[in-house]
Amino acid sequence: MKLPMRRAAAIATAAAVAVTLAACGPSETTDAGAATGGGAAEDDKTITIGVHSGWDEGIAVSHLWQRILEDEGYDVELETADAGVVFTGLAEGDYDLNFDTWLPLTHASYMDEYGDKLEELGTWYDDAKLTIAVNEDAPIDSLAELADNADLFGNKLVGIEAGAGLTKTTQEQAIPTYGLEKMEYLISSTPAMLAELDGATKAGNNVAVTLWRPHWAYDAYPIKDLEDPEGAMGAAEEIKTMGTKGFAEANPDVAGWIKKFTLTDEQLFSLENIMFNEMDGKDNDAAVDQWLEENPYFVAGITG
């Protein structure tokens, strides 16, 4: 997942995408009026999932659901595109499902534009947020303590890309709110931040990094979020599954399974860690296989 880049890009993408897809013309239809391109109006067992490009948790969960549905006899197609393309396609019935809709903030503009053509099928994660994290055994637990203990962290806070929403929030909100101006704020890249985290962990050193939930680093490293008593990093969001309008009526069994679907931090972080860290995103189907072997009763709790 690349959460920090999202909020800045979401609104700009929506308008451009709507124009692009409109120019492509309407979907072909059968004599019965059903779209031939994977929408909920189809009378077969083909389901098309729109996946936001670069959003790790959505990629992971979409591949998990591909396996669940295929095991139940469905033909499942995953199509990856920018978020704006996905929501436009979902509204037009070109996609049936999206498992990575962040509300009430990140994807609010798409709900404003397309909400009457979509239907909410469930909330599967409720603690998506921007954070500043430290090693689990660090001697502080709150951002309010960081300034007075900056020397314990080498007087630096390790960040990610300059254009990321997380970077902006840290610069404009967290640093002035908690008096962190004297700390060196290192703005570089997500891989560089993870390398700093990895090196500090192996060396047994304290480290402070900007991060976000969900992320596989929480499964790979012994880290904790610093409490944010002033709410400078923003409120937690929910990740929801959205369907094209009419999906639940056309697919009541699938809609029922999705309604029951939730992931804990441990479950989600471990799935992402296997897929994107251990397997480096090269074999997502194998990652799902391994995760299901480690969670043998998970699917039965949804479809059973």
CATH architecture of the largest domain: 3-Layer(aba) Sandwich
Whole-number count of domains: 2
What is the name of the CATH class of the largest domain?
Alpha Beta
Rg (CA only): 21 Å
Instruction: Give, in order, the helices and strands.
Output: HEHEHEHEEHEHEHEEHHHHH
Structural class category? alpha/beta
CATH topology of the largest domain: D-Maltodextrin-Binding Protein, domain 2
Uncertain ranges: 1-43
Overall 3D form? globular
CATH superfamily of the largest domain: Periplasmic binding protein-like II
Strand content: 15-25%
Largest sheet: 5 strands, antiparallel
Number of strands: 9
Report helical residue fraction. 40-55%
**Average predicted local confidence, pLDDT:** 88
How would you sum up this structure, described in words?
There is one protein chain. By secondary structure, the chain is of the alpha/beta class. The chain folds into two domains: 3-10 and 43-127 and 237-303, D-Maltodextrin-Binding Protein, domain 2, CATH 3.40.190.10; 128-225, 3-Layer(aba) Sandwich (D-Maltodextrin-Binding Protein, domain 2), CATH 3.40.190.100. It is 40% helix and 20% strand. The chain contains twelve helices and nine strands. The strands form three sheets. Strands 3, 4, 7, 8 and 9 form a five-stranded antiparallel β-sheet that branches. A two-stranded parallel sheet has the order 1-2. A two-stranded parallel ribbon has the order 5-6. Strand 5, helix 5 and strand 6 (184-186) form a beta-alpha-beta unit. Helix 1 (6-22) crosses helix 3, helix 2 packs across helix 10 and helix 10 runs antiparallel to helix 11 (284-294). The radius of gyration is 21 Å and the shape is globular. The relative contact order is 0.17. Mean pLDDT is 88; it is low at 1-43. InterPro entries: ABC_Gly_betaine_transp_sub-bd. It is found in: Cell membrane. Residues 45-294 form the ABC-type glycine betaine transport system substrate-binding domain. Keywords: Cell membrane, Membrane, Signal, Transport. Residues 1-22 form the signal peptide.
